[in-house]
Design goal:
This protein is an alpha/beta fold. It is built from 13 helices and 5 strands. The protein has 2 domains: 136 residues, Response regulator (Rossmann fold); 108 residues, Arc Repressor Mutant, subunit A (Orthogonal Bundle).
């Protein structure tokens, strides 16, 4: 299909990314469109454009409200929303906000080709209409989705995601909190504060809790000596392990294992008593018959 536009589509870009990466995205369209970057997201828009392109990496409340304001003040120009962060709720919000196109990054070559094709068709229709067609100026202003309202808080905790699996696999060994903080690009103080906010426990207490629960599992389901269990869960000093376990479980490891064994024995005896009672009852019934 060919298009007979006298000039290329004009795209006006708004950079609402946190890392200011829109110029890299614009470069993908420079060969087919005339692209310009809006200065400081200033409204109202004075430039003529065939399409307003708003680029998000992680949409937040302020950015989405700006999109609605652009839609309200410039209703005749269609809007494309480019976003790295994607959810079904966000896509529905964009549709209800009358966003013309919702594009999830990074774009595949096929998706980019499809988008450019429909942009050219749209420009052809609008230009042939000589400006006679007018877009609806009804402002639906749908409420922002909860996943976006909570984004800033979630983003802080997402920075910890990369090290939680590491902790899960290595809590039995020595882990330096400052090293984990560096992995997350944080100071130790900030890491400690966010870790407690995300997990409900400070880093040291979280590691201790993991070790104690693992120790209880070994006491319940193995015949390992208690000293060996202490070493297995990460304690180099058996007496320190005993003190830590007592503080955690209100009893020593030996007392915990003994209580577990007594409960298991009592449960087994109860089952045997029930079986005996059932057998006697069956015998009495057969004799009565």
């Amino acid at each position: 299909m060919t298009f007979n536009l006298t000039k290329r589509p004009s795209l006006l870009w708004f950079d609402l990314t946190h890392d200011r990466s829109t110029k890299e995205l614009i470069a993908q369209f420079d060969d087919a469109c005339d692209c310009s970057l809006a200065k400081n997201s200033v409204l109202p828009i004075r430039e003529h454009a065939d399409m307003i392109c708003i680029h998000f990496d992680r949409p937040d409340t302020q950015g989405l409200r700006l999109l609605l304001e652009i839609k309200r003040t410039t209703p005749a120009i269609p809007i494309t929303m480019f976003t790295v962060q994607h959810s079904e709720e966000l896509a529905v919000w964009a549709m209800r906000s009358s966003v013309w196109e919702y594009m999830v990054l990074p774009l595949s070559p096929a998706e980019k080709k499809r988008y450019l094709g429909v942009v050219v068709q749209l420009c052809e229709v609008r230009r042939n209409a000589n400006g006679q067609g007018k877009s609806s100026q009804i402002d639906h202003s749908p409420s922002l989705p909860d996943s976006i309202r909570l984004t800033s808080g979630h983003q802080k905790h997402q920075a910890l995601n990369s090290i939680m699996l590491y902790i899960e696999q290595n809590f039995r060994y020595s882990i330096d909190q400052s090293d984990l903080a560096k992995r997350c690009g944080m100071t130790t103080f900030r890491f400690s504060r966010l870790f407690k906010e995300a997990n409900g426990l400070g880093f040291t207490d979280y590691i201790l809790n993991k070790r104690m629960n693992y120790a209880k599992d070994l006491l319940d389901n193995s015949q390992m000596p208690i000293t060996s269990i202490g070493y297995e869960v990460g304690f180099k000093d058996p007496s320190y392990f005993a003190r830590a376990f007592r503080q955690f479980a209100n009893c020593t490891p030996s007392e915990y294992r003994l209580a577990r064994q007594l409960r298991a024995a009592a449960a087994m005896q109860f089952e045997q008593d029930e079986e005996t009672s059932e057998a006697l009852e069956s015998l009495v019934q057969s004799l009565s018959g």
